[in-house]
Every structure is written in C-alpha cells, then in structure tokens.
Specification:
The chain is of the alpha/beta class. 43% of the residues lie in helices and 15% in strands. It has 2 domains: 40-278, Type I PLP-dependent aspartate aminotransferase-like (Major domain) (Aspartate Aminotransferase, domain 2, 3-Layer(aba) Sandwich), CATH 3.40.640.10; 282-405, Aspartate Aminotransferase, domain 1 (Alpha-Beta Complex). The strands form 4 sheets. Strands 2-10-9-8-5-3-4 form a 7-stranded mixed β-sheet, with helices on both faces. Strands 11-12-15-14 form a 4-stranded antiparallel β-sheet, with helices on one face. A two-stranded parallel sheet has the order 1-13. The structure holds pyridoxal-5'-phosphate (PLP). Residues 34, 85-87, 112, 158, 160, 162, 187, 189-190, 210 line the site of pyridoxal-5'-phosphate.
Length: 406
C-alpha cells in the first residue's frame, strides 16, 4: 500500500537511528494527558540553585506563584499548595471536609470518578455513586434527582475525565449543587488551564489540580482552591488529618511558606510556567487547546479510525481513538515510541488492546500532532492495516487553521 511522501520520509528516518547517535539521546515527545511537556523556560527555571523554604527568596517566589495561581484558577481565594500528585490534593479535600459515615454523592464517568469513590469509601464515608458508563457525560437533571434522593450535602465532580476525553458541563452541574446547597469538590486536574473553568463565578467550593498537565510544570505539586463555605465546613469535619491539614497549611502559607518542605524548585518552575500561560492569556490557551483537539480529530478521521473521545470541541484536552479491529494498540504505542520518539497513552480494561489516547495539553504544537498522525498512519500500514495514507497530517493542519484555504 502506498505510503505517500511524508510516510516514506518517516519510514526512511526511522531506519536512521544513527542520526540521533553520538551521545545525543533520542528526544521523546510527550503527547500524553500528563505528565506533559515542559517549555524550555520552565526547564531552565528548574535548573536554578535550590532555595530554602524558610527564606525571603522563597517567600518572594511563593507570593508570585500565589498571584498567578489565583489568576489561572479565576479566584480571589488563597490556593493551597501541596507537594504531592493531584490525588493527594483530592485526599486533602476529603479529610478536611468529611466525617466518618457522612454521605457524599460521587459522580463518576470514568477512572478518576471511580478513584474518588474508592478513596471516600476507604475513609469510611457513605458513598452514594452517580455512575455513568465510561465515555458518557453526567447530566444536570440526574444530579438534581440524585441530590434530592440521597440528601447528600457534598458532591464530587470530575471536570475532564482523562480516561475517556469527556469534559462535562461543569458550570451547569455546579448550578445544580448550588440549588441544593451542596458543597462541591471538583477534580480539575486535566482541565484547569486547558478549558474554561471559573472557580469563583461558577461557585465551585473546592477545585483541585496538579502541576503536571495544562500548567506545563513537572509532576510534584498539587493545588486546592477553597471557598469560605468549605472553610466553615472544615471546622466541623472530623476525619483525621495531619500532612493534609488545610488550617495549618493556610496559616503557614500566609507567612510565605508551607508547613513542611515544599518542592521548592518545582514552585520556581511553576511560577515561570504560569507566567508563560498568563502572558498569552487564558483565552488564548483555551483557543489553542480547542484547535489542537480539532486537528487531532481531523487527523484520526482522515486515517479512517474510530474516535473514542467525543467528536466535538468539548474534547479539547485529549483525543482517544480505536485501532482497526485486530490491530494491537499496545504494539502501536511501542512502535511510536521506539521508532518515532512519540509517547502517547493507552487505554484501560477491555479497551486496552484497541484504545490509544493522544494528549494535547499544555506545551503542544500542531506540528507535533501532524507528526504523530503520520507516524500512526505509517505504523498501521506496517502491520498491514487497510488505512488511508498521507491524508492525516494535512487534515490536522487544516483543521487547526494553519493552512490557508485555496
Ligand atoms: C492526572 C489526573 C489526576 C491525578 O493524578 P495524579 O497521578 O495523582 O497526579 C486526577 N484526575 C484526573 C482527571 C487526572 O487527569
């Protein structure tokens, strides 16, 4: 089957690993939904000498980080900064806001929603699930009914479900929480900075995210923006807490540090990364993510593959697609990594052999997406799949808007 000019070039290049030899490691492009690629400015910030967390040097950079975090979270509140992965910040919300046996309505539409249900159960909460099939989006009407029936006063929501690519209508779901006067805890780990999220204006009580996705920073920091209502709730919640104690965290943050040694270099890097995000503006970031999603979907369709993530602009965080029947997605991912220097993510459960996910979060260009599309075309042809060749990269570029229409 003809590979086309671009495909032939890829086949040629992949045989020339020696181009990367002479001690220069083959660069890997991270097109995964976290951790994500980090811009050079952020890498050089990481390379600065380590600073001490009880020094004016840290207090200064931490104050700037706070200011920038508030801008990205779209909030006036302090943002608590933990040295952990995103899961740690979510655990902090559970242990500061809930008591043993307390009822919580946990909305799930994929892996992460299920994780929060399991976590709340582990802490002895009375978890009422509002569970959707993976790939579905939660509906405000279902939430209204479930809140009325369960009488729960706390709700877990996942904004962008990274296992499926579904981004829910968070604004509407939060409006339903407000109607029922229920406290909302939002997992925004893969959404904050990629798609619109108005923490204050939409009335989210707690918004949790991590450093390693749209915030273009290495893994290691997690954040929680906490509403006044949530601070009041925390006063009566009785689950035990120590490392995650919000009250102590707030007290020490007000003095320009954190209770325990933070990942100081990662805070420095975060400050640089948020500076880049805000220099272009959040609207530009949202528009870029939407356009990258369009490019990816156009490429996948031009290859003739089936989309797993939604086929609309809501899927701005990642694109999931299925390999043709009988073509192993795990082998495809390995070929992309080993032969083309492109790392993408896999699937889960029954779909592990068919699903692959391409993250377009943070520091990603459409040229990288176009390159990944060509590499996918080529590798599918190599295993004998009957797919179109040579169309995906042009389709991706055109959908992104970089190709002037003739
Ligand atoms: C990445 C991610 C998390 C957090 O994962 P950690 O590995 O704990 O940082 C949580 N929720 C969603 C939706 C994510 O994408």
């Amino acid at each position: 089957m003809p590979l086309g000019v671009v495909g032939a070039l890829f086949v040629h290049l992949r045989g020339t690993g020696r181009l990367y030899a002479q001690g220069v490691p083959r660069p890997q492009q991270l097109l995964t939904p976290g951790p994500t690629a980090v811009p050079p400015e952020v890498l050089s910030a990481l390379a600065q000498p380590v600073i001490h967390h009880r020094s004016p040097d840290f207090a200064e950079v931490f104050a700037l980080a706070q200011e920038r975090l508030r801008a990205v979270f779209r909030t006036e509140r302090d943002v608590l900064v933990f040295t952990s992965s995103g899961t740690g910040a979510f655990e902090s919300a559970i242990v500061n806001l809930l008591s043993p046996g307390q009822r919580v309505l946990a909305v799930s539409q994929g892996e992460f929603g299920e994780r929060w249900q399991a976590m709340a159960r582990a802490f002895g909460c009375d978890v009422v699930p509002l569970a959707y099939a993976w790939g579905e989006a939660p509906s405000p009407d279902d939430l209204r009914t479930a809140l009325a029936e369960s009488g729960a006063q706390t709700v877990f929501l996942v904004h962008s479900e990274t296992s499926t690519g579904v981004v829910c209508d968070l604004e509407q779901l939060l409006a339903v929480c407000a109607e029922a006067d229920a406290l909302s805890i939002v997992d925004a780990v893969s959404s904050l900075g990629a798609v619109p999220l108005e923490t204050d204006a939409w009335g989210a009580d707690v918004v949790v995210t991590g450093s390693q996705k749209a915030l273009m920073t290495p893994p290691g920091l997690a954040f929680a923006a906490v509403s006044e209502r949530a601070w009041v709730r925390a006063e009566t919640a009785t689950l035990p807490r120590f490392y995650w104690d919000w009250e102590r965290q707030r007290r020490v943050q007000e003095k320009g540090s954190t209770p325990f040694t933070p990942a100081t270099s990662t805070v420095v890097a975060l400050t640089a990364a948020l500076g880049l995000v805000l220099a272009d503006g959040l609207e530009a970031a949202y528009a870029r993510h939407r356009a990258l999603g369009r490019a990816c979907r156009a490429g996948i369709k031009a290859i003739g593959l089936e989309l797993y993530s939604p086929d609309d602009d809501s899927a701005a965080v990642l694109t999931g697609a299925l390999t043709p029947e009988g073509v192993d997605a795990v082998a495809l991912r390995l070929a992309l990594r080993d032969k083309h220097g492109i790392t993408i993510a896999g699937g889960h459960g029954e779909l592990v052999s068919r699903l692959f996910r391409i993250g377009h979060i943070g520091h990603v260009t459409v040229e990288q997406i176009a390159g990944a599309m060509t590499a996918i075309e080529v590798e599918l042809a190599v295993v004998g799949a009957d797919v179109e060749q040579g169309n995906a990269a042009p389709a991706a570029l055109e959908a992104f808007g970089t190709v002037a229409s003739a």
